[in-house]
Amino acid sequence: MIAFIAKRLAAGVVLLVAVSVGTFFLAHTAITDPTVGLLGTTATEAQREALTIKLGLDRPLIVQFWDWFSHAAIGDFGTSWRNFQSVNDQIAIKLPVTLSVVSFATLLTAFFGITLGMIAGLNPNSMLDRMSKGITVVLFALPGFWVSLVLVIWFAVNLRWFPAVGYVQPTQSITGWLRSITLPAVSLSLMGIVVVAEQLRNEVIAVNKQDFVRTLRSRGLSQGQVIIHILRNACPAALTMLAIMFVSLLSGAIVVEAIFSLPGIGQLINSSSQIGDIPVLLGITVVSVIFVVIVNFLLDIALGWINPKVRVK
Amino acid sequence: MADVNTPLLTVEDLVVEYGSRGKGFRALHGVSIDIKPGECVGVVGESGSGKSTLGNAILGLAPVTEGKITFDGEDISHAKGADRRRLAKSIQVVFQDPYGSLDPTMRVGDILAEPLTVAGESKDKARDAVAEMIERVHLPAGTIDRYPSEFSGGQRQRIAIARALVRRPRLIVCDEPVSALDLTTQSTVIDLFIEIQRDIGVSYLFVSHDLGVVRRICHRVAVMQRGEIVEFGDAAMVTSEPEHPYSARLLLASPVADPAAQAQRRQNWLALREEDNAAAVR
Amino acid sequence: MSTTAIVQEDADPRASKRQSIFSRFIRTPAGIISLGVILFIIAVAVLAPWISPQDPNYVDLFAAKAPPSAEHWLGGDSTGRDILSRLIWGTRTTLWGALITIVTALVIGAPAGVVAGYFGGAFDRAASWVSDAIQAIPGMIILLVVAAGTRQNFPLLMATVGVLLTPGYYRIARARTLTIRNEPFVAAAWVAGLSHPRIIVKHIFPGVYAPIIIQTALAAGIAMGIQAGLQFLGIGSANVPSWGAMMNEGFRFMLTSPLLLLWPSAALGVTIAALAVMGSTLGDLVRVRTPSAGKKATAAAATANAAARAPATGAFAYDADKAAVRVENLRVAYATPSGESEVVHGISFDVAPGEVLGIVGESGSGKSQTVFSMLDLLPSGGRYEADGIVISGRDVAKLPAKERAKLLGSEIGYIPQEPMSNLDPCYTIGFQLMQPLRSVHKKSRKEARDIARAMLERVGIADVDRVMKSYPFEISGGMAQRVLIAGAIAGQPSVLLADEPTTALDVTVQAEVLELLRELQDEFHMALVLVTHNFGVVADICDRVIVMRDGDIVEVGEVRETFAGAKEPYTRDLISASLDGAASRRELDEEFAGKGANAQPAAQGA
Hints:
The structure holds three protein chains of three kinds. The model of chain A has no long low-confidence stretch (mean pLDDT 86). By secondary structure, chain A is an all-alpha fold. In chain A, helix 1 runs antiparallel to helix 13, helix 5 packs antiparallel against helix 10 and helix 5 runs parallel beside helix 13. Chain B is built from ten helices and ten strands. By secondary structure, chain B is α/β, with parallel strands linked by helices. The mean pLDDT of chain B is 89. In chain C, 56% of the residues lie in helices and 12% in strands. The chains are: A mainly alpha, B alpha/beta, C alpha/beta. The interface between A and C is large, with 77 and 82 residues.
């Protein structure tokens, strides 16, 4: 077990370093002169030069990299080029917003995706299966932000059930917080629900055909007990989907955050990328890869617990 | 034409190891066997005995770690690339699984012509050869326009035999070719193997777990256990009065389709088991 | 294998012919409609310069936020540009972008996946690592960085999206290749002298391309969604009409001019939906589902069959009250696309307590279906009817499913064929043995554990402690079969149904298992019904035997009498096909050599 953890940890660190290095050089290659974005096109040559020196951009790229990397390695992502605030602080402020929306969305996805997939898979080609299939196709088709727009128009603007925009801190009001994250979470979860349900449905159908299910029934187990056996065998793929969805939304909910004016990571990415604020972008990248590593690690443990055969490999 | 008594194929002290050297899994521990022209040599054993690995090593599908495989005087132990492809003319295979061994996306005619066209035969010649082989394995001529999925297990196995034959090889490695078939189909396919061997003088390495099948088709047989040959001799003898205790156990464990004989065999098997248990206690 | 063949016959995606996937696709309503929509959209994109009513960037101030009119069919946008024209040109932008993305992802991902799957080794490890790394990268950040650096370079941006979608193609191509690579036909092609590149082209590609096409339909939709999202955020040239930018504008004027948002949203929604429908329809065609027995069809078939039914085959050996099991006129049918097909045509038989009845036959004879009907556990799509199934004096055929299920595990025990696939891989052996004891027989945890351990000991497992804690993959096939036998007898059933219980085992293990079954059956005085294709097994253990062929019983009799002189030629054929006591090859050759004057020694020939 310890060897397993150590191995996963090492692989995670390698991934983290590789993605950081890759993103660093990609960002510096793509954004050749960050001062253009930071100062705008109206700035004079002298102003630009001053900023270049202030940010240390006149140094060789490899030196800049080492400067950034050696600090990042001990958890210091430096300061923003725009407002010279600590990148760590900015992320710390924005992350809870995104985390609450994304976690809520993942919960919704898990609940509805697993329920729908299970029902459809146990009754293939039934009325319900066909219906959920139809809904699946349509929902899968529509990008999350498209759904957000519809939800905003309908529930926020027309019905006024939920606020159209803005975020309420849970410390201010729990219900206000829940109301503020409901619409974004719903629009982020729909696609995930569909993917998880479809995945689970196919797995359940496949497991249901396996010999051991018949043998379990032949031992006199109840339908409920047999379903638990089936679900345990069928869920790994759906769980993997959930994990992928969770981590990809952490930095991928930019448009939805923009629509609902949520002050989350997505907004930070959007505003930083527009002006080329590379330290902030790199900081977010590293944080989200850390999440990837952690979530994948937890996923591996969960999958190993569900099906011990995986552990051996 | 080589002398009848000169072996077509010799395997000497063959060791096959999967995975990294030393640490890997050793499937064969120094196996020696020979096959003469026109002869059928059987390899019997239980799962994990290495019997299929032996066939695969001859075909170049398993790594030869040590030892030597000689075919028609040529060392083919480590034949790779073009050398190995040249051997396709002489050494062919029929696998166990009649469903997996034919590409389901190709027509039977194309499957059979493929070995010829890769060897540079013209389309017309290939078509004639395919037609001849289809006839030889007693399938209707219309077979070539259909897909493998349209045939039963026994028919597919006939197609696989025809594919093995189209280049007129001198050795066919048969890896459990009848064990997935129904009994009655099995005996007709065995008859076909014998008929073909008599007609064209091809040699077989016949891998099987079934002593009855091996007795029927093989001239000589090798009994394998845990990667080693424990007995190699005349098939009729080995399958009726084996010398090695493991061969005897194998024979006594296979039930015969005759209640009286089987009752006797079971008594003998029980007695042997008693002996083994007593030996284990001691 | 034979037991579920009817259902799994079409399970292999490549079993059906290549050309027919497309023709079957356009014959489904969803297929033809989605294809029509996509062809229409492609036509609009290609013909944009000719069908667009106006220049998409021409500003007509009077048309600002104008409602639909004869001049502007869909009205004007906030600055007075014609919405229809912008929509048409936006189609072009959208498709062009999606094309760049897909081509990039496909060209990098699919070949890499095929090569990694086929050759494995270092390239596979490296490529798989890169693929995982790409999935770990926060894609939107990369896209926005690239966008910020090259604001106008739309093709480069879409190509970047393509790189981010590469892992999807890579994984599918690799997984599919791995599956095909392990098929014996690939080994056969190699032995036939094909080079690796040629095997890939001729044998791997045909199996990989269908899932790749499905993936492409889905990836195109994803690419369009991402593209519109980026444009919505304001990325891309303001002069290039795009759906995403139009949606952004619509969003800003959502409250005053909702139509501005409606048109581009509808265009994007319809296009992506069409792609998704196409992908899922193709997926269904490739996957071919089990046909279900529609109630109407079943009823119709039942009445149609009733007249044509032949009388039941088989016979009873005991009085009704003496038999442990009495099956009367059992019929089993499966739903197929062309209606219901009957696989067991009315058979009758019985078994006495303490008796071993063999049901023997070749694949397709209906012997396993008979067992599944007695268990009431036919695979989906199958159903049976019978004039009576009497178990321990009770006719259970007409019992409701729930009542019927109560017999399982207590009155009836079942031993399956494949030991490994019949244990749940996710639970320990101990749990799987104890669960029925606790829930069906209401034993306490301790009692259940004691019984399970006693059973394992009884079936000859030496290391009971270890086996109780083991998972199925940690024990051998022979041991797994013993575990399954322990599970079947744990409930002390009066009837034991064994479906080819030794077929998957080595002969030495088979002998042990047969001996064990004989002992147990004797000890518990169970009626044992044993399905097999092996007459040696019948000779070894059975008292009576039923010979089945194509769903009928052709012969019933005492084992000794049947072997000594079978009435049916078919039975005699089967027995003689067993090859026991048949002539050896030496004898055959001698006979052959002596027969014909022109017969030659085997070694002579071509």
